[in-house]
Amino acid sequence: MNESAPSHVKEGTVTMDTGEMRCDATSGSETSLDPSCAVRAPIGLLAELTHRCPLQCPYCSNPLELEKVNVELTTEEWQKVMRQAAQLGILQVHLSGGEPTARRDLEEIVKTASEAGLYTNLITAAVLLKRDRLEKLKECGLDHVQISIQDVDTEAENADRIAGYKGGSAKKKEVAGWVRELGMPLTINAPIHRHNIHSVEAIINYAVELGAGRVEIAHVQYYAWALKNRASLMPTREAFMEAARIVERERERLKGIIVIDAVVPDYYAKYPKPCMGGWGKGIINITPSGRVLPCHAAESITHLEFDNVKDRPLADIWLNGSAFQKYRGTSWMKEPCRTCPRREIDYGGCRCQAFALTGDAANTDPACSLSPMHEAWAKVAEVESHQSSPAFVYRRPGGATPKPEIKKTPATSDA
Amino acid sequence: MGETTPRQRTVITTDSKPVMPPYIKMRHDAGRNRWLILAPERLFDPDAIAVEVLKLCDGARSVGDIAGILSKEYNAPVEDIEVDIITMLQDLADKGVVKA
Question: I want to staple A118 with a disulfide (CB 3.0 to 4.6 A). Which of A113, A126, A266, B83 is the partner?
Fold first, then answer.
């Protein structure tokens, strides 16, 4: 997705979307070390500070089993993580969740991260933010704010229905305005699916109007809650193709005004995506309780064991942790990946998807046309996207396995 | 809300006075032994020439001034340098890395 720069500056991205993180920064000159030993320093840390969130988006990339507040790392523990991350060579930290502003100590964490030299990025639903808090976060060194939206403000009702949060759309608009007033760079992240894919052009224009420097047209990635809700969320191929054409056209029209990044749903992609830019290659994810993952969905691979930052230094986990070692590089691959000329381009796709659908995470991701399961898998999208959309399974603690009588969660709107 | 006038593309010319906004951070990474530009969810990998140019972009010097300085330093025709750095800076302006 990188444009080839004609100039003296190569570009990489350290992007965090609802369902995917891409990391394709180009490395400098390669040394002649044995490549299997050459584990590079990670460049991005996705810090899920909490799984608490006032929104209930049915495509949330958090695991179905949400971590509870009483297991969350303390302020000091997160601060230690930030210092260790900087020492390890990490350049950017994405402060995410759940909703990171649900933590009252966010300022302290940002300050420590910034002082350690990390580029700090707040990934927020924005509905809990007040102006003075945002100002304080800026003073603490916050570099960038990413606000997620569900639809444009003229479709606020739809947006609030998707998020399961009344008044969210208007609040987000207000916070976006503050971000710009404070002179901070703004990204608008719009997870795209069947219920808002008709708004792609309007969303891009809305992001321009809000003063964003970037907008992410982030087609939902079907893991976790999104997989649970796939039949509700999957757009038709035709709708997807139309959205892709719009993105391409708007990118040209808005050149120099806004950067448009697009994340393609792999059900409609030609090749599987190089998940996380390669397992254990550039990104670390840490859960609210301190579990260190090669990818935010990695816990779905049930036989992996994850270290906790409370027990072991981050650098040691990155280099030697069994979960990171397991699928790093290419030596774990089976056929057809092992001898595939694209093995270092897409790394056989997504381990979590391979595990979920084939039972073996070392198999080729069914998103790849060379997978024996590919045809059956691709058909799912075709079929589901043309059926009527079932009601959302909203993202909330226990929501994935509803037990009829104990629901006391307030104010979901009609789905 | 912020702007009321429509947002426009920054076009880099000889007279532009480019500068990296405060949230774009260029720094030397000792561990990797290279210069990096950190930007919102982006990482840029500038070569030695780009680093030279960007260090001179202070919002006061014009592209013409910068080309003049580099022309003396590298003993190269100022016109060639100017064309080269305008291309580079335009690309970076389009990506939000420099303002002018």
Answer: A113
